Amino acid sequence: MRIVGLLLAFMFVGVQSFAEVFIAAGAGYKKPLETVSALYEKQSGKKVLRSYGNLQQVIEQAKQSGKIDAIFGDEKFIQKSKLSVKPAQLIGKGKLVLVASKSVELRSTKDLEKMNKIALPDAKKAIYGIAAMEFLKSANYAESLKDKLMFVATVPQVSTYLRQGSVEVGFINLTDYLANKEQFGEMIEIPQETYSPILIVVAPLQDSKSAELADFMAFLDSKEAKEVFKEYGLEK
């Protein structure tokens, strides 16, 4: 009987571990993912574990830990990572915006020439840093503004500098702006034709063992989840 009891206890622990989903996401999408995860947990009674960082860090975590079930972020970046994933599910289109600190006047992108400090995410590791550099090159600002550019790791770090007034303007995504707009000054949406398309997806890993992953992904495509994503600027 004791052996049977131990076996049942072991089986119960195993079932509990599979009643979870572990999602790793780009840091700029923390607010919407936190919101939809909380809704899912409330409705299903199941747990969604979350981890955030710049997407390259997130992908490395997925490769090394073996615990991540899906990646939430830019489709192209995930594809280039050579991470073994199943077909991705589209969440919405990512949009690049230029945002000013509260005390700074920003009327157009031409005002960039007046600024002393311009923050943007890492142009090698962060998708919105790449997009910002593509815009600056297309507008012929990349060379003239190069000494004013301050690169940081992630979109939320740019937002922190903007809120603190440590920089005058910064490039972030529309999602992060909408999540914190009361703390920012003016915002200008960058024309989408000036940078490569950004498709935000959730990509399930091939080796995921979570029995709940399919259910969670179905919820991400529900009316409730879509309303949350729309509120944060993510629409298909």
Automatic annotation (TrEMBL):
GO molecular function: metal ion binding; molybdate ion binding
Membrane-spanning ranges: none
Gene3D superfamilies reported in the protein's UniProt record: Periplasmic binding protein-like II (3.40.190.10)
GO biological process: molybdate ion transport
Domain of life: Bacteria
InterPro entries according to UniProt: ModA, ModA/WtpA
Binding site for molybdate: V155
Pfam families linked to this entry: SBP_bac_11 (PF13531)
SUPFAM superfamilies in alphabetical order: Periplasmic binding protein-like II
Keyword Signal among record annotations: yes
Keyword terms: Metal-binding, Molybdenum, Signal
Protein family (similarity comment): Belongs to the bacterial solute-binding protein ModA family.
Protein name listed in UniProt: Molybdate ABC transporter substrate-binding protein
Taxonomic lineage from the root: Bacteria, Pseudomonadati, Campylobacterota, Epsilonproteobacteria, Campylobacterales
